[in-house]
Inverse folding.
């Protein structure tokens, strides 16, 4: 399975007086989505890879009216994994707290590779 290293920024967030650093992936395009596995960023779905089997399957699910997060969650369940496209950030971003990070994600475009 192919990997990608993203040069991104993490930010400090605050919730109930508690500060934590996380990566919201602000720089991704509308065609790129991070899949979180048990709350941690692990995979990247890139809809620009139109000919890949998983991308075609997801597009057909979306055309039928299914939400991307629901489709990803169902695929994860089939594999016995907890997947979502929604980050778990429910806090207020602290201004000017960005820090450069490099994160490696697996490019997910064929479930047979898992």
């Amino acid at each position: 399975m192919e990997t990608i290293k993203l040069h991104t920024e993490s930010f400090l967030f605050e919730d109930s007086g508690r500060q934590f650093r996380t990566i919201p992936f602000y720089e991704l395009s509308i065609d790129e989505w991070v899949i979180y596995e048990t709350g941690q960023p692990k995979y990247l779905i890139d809809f620009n890879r139109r000919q890949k089997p998983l991308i075609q399957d997801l597009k057909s699910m979306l055309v039928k009216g299914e939400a991307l997060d629901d489709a990803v969650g169902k695929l994860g369940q089939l594999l016995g994994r907890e997947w979502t496209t929604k980050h778990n950030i429910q806090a207020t971003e602290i201004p000017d707290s960005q820090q450069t990070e490099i994160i490696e994600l697996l490019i997910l475009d064929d479930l047979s590779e898992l």
Remarks:
- The two ends are 8 Å apart (CA to CA).
